[in-house]
Structures are given as C-alpha cells and as structure tokens.
Amino acid sequence: MAVTIKSAKEIELMREAGRLLEIVHDEMGSIIKPGVSTMEINECGDRVIRKLGCVPNFLNYGGFPASICVSVNEEVVHGVPRRDHILKEGDIVSLDAGLIYKGYHSDAARTHAVGKVSEDVQRLLDATKQSFFEGIKMARPGNHLYDISNAIDAYISGFGYGIVQDLVGHGIGTSLHEDPQIPNFRQKKKGMKLIPGMTLAVEPMINMGTWKVVWLEDEWTVVTRDHKPSAHYENTILITDGEPEILTLHI
Fold this sequence. Notes:
Number of domains: 1
CATH class: Alpha Beta
Distance between the termini: 33 Å
Largest sheet: 5 strands, antiparallel
Order of helices and strands: HHEEEEEHHEEEEEEEEEE
Strand order of the largest sheet: 8-7-9-14-15
Number of strands: 15
CATH topology: Creatine Amidinohydrolase
Structural class: alpha+beta
Shape: globular
Helix content: 25-40%
CATH superfamily: Creatinase/methionine aminopeptidase superfamily
C-alpha cells in the first residue's frame, strides 16, 4: 500500500484546495429549496469551482457525466444530476463535490434537508454528521487507521442504522483516490499507523435501514436496497502532530 506523506508545501496547497471547496459547498447549500432541480445544483457547483480558478475533479472521472454528485433521499452517492429531478419539501439531498487546485484534490460531502423534514430523518442527518466527528477523534499520530472506522461504527450502532460497506473513504492528494481505503464500519485488524502528513477523506454513509445497496441502471447512482433514506458527510482531513485538521471545514 503506497500512502503519500505530504510535504509542508503540499499541505499548503491542499489546505487551499479545501478552503475553496468549502466555498463551493456554501454556495450550493444556499440554493437548496423545493422546486430546484438537481441539475441546477450541479451547474451552481461547476460555476463556482471554475470561478475560483479550479477544475471539478468529478467531471468525467471514470466517465461520470457531471461535476457534482447530487443524491436524493434513498440515493446514497453518485447521483447523476437531471433537469427533471426536482427537489420537494421533506426531501434530503446529499452533495458530494471535489476540485483540483494547482494539481491537488479536495473532496467533501454534505447532506441537506429540503425545507422541513421529519424528526426521524433529521436524526439520521445529525447522527451521520456526528459520526464523522466521532471518527476523527481517533485521527491522531500513533493511532491506527481502523481506530477511525471503529469509532464511527461504535457511535452509529446505538441508532440501529446501517453503515454502507460497499463504499469507503480514501486517501487523497495529487489523485482523488489514493491509498489507504478507510471503512466506516468495524474492522478486526488495526490497519496502518497514522503519521503526520497523511491526508484522508473520511466519509460515513449511513442508511436509515439496511446497510445493503444496489446500483441503478445508469451504473452510477447507488441506492439503499430497502429504499429508506441515506445520509453522507465527508471532509478531507490532515493528520498532524496532534488534533487532525479539517481542510474542508473552517469552524
């Protein structure tokens, strides 16, 4: 497994790639309301990425036909934007986006409520987001990679939700997907030791029902097998000498 350790200069470039991606997410989030199409969200994200002088890293990646993955309700990830897919009150929409800044990638996802959602759905959104933060509490040098996985699983297990197993987090840098793979569910092994300079995309994908998923005929969109809602929360993080730094979220 070839895991890249970033230099100080590379970290600065990835930090800027992350800062810019947060701007993109803020802009996309601001237009979400009933009546907006998933294609409009994609066009907004693409426009902002290019305005910032960056390139959308999802567009044409493995043949993906859009700049933003826009996934609604039971769609877990890789939803293909469409002009006729219109958001309505009570939906949830997951936006997975990334960009390239001076050769370095960032990657982040957010799930938004469209108008007012049910208490059960809001609980899913909140738990998914918090599971990311529970996971990265373990993202410290000397700990092991799967300490992150196990912390996410330990938090989510109390809710009875399904943790998607067919898709995982990943390393990131000059490529969108680098080693290592980062499962969001409990692992028997420890995994590699975490070292300062590692950059990782940690992204729990949590289903209200079963963890099992299927791919639609477009060969991109992943949906829950039981058609219950799914939420996705992701940030690009940096392993430091102490607490991890979240590159795509500035609190």
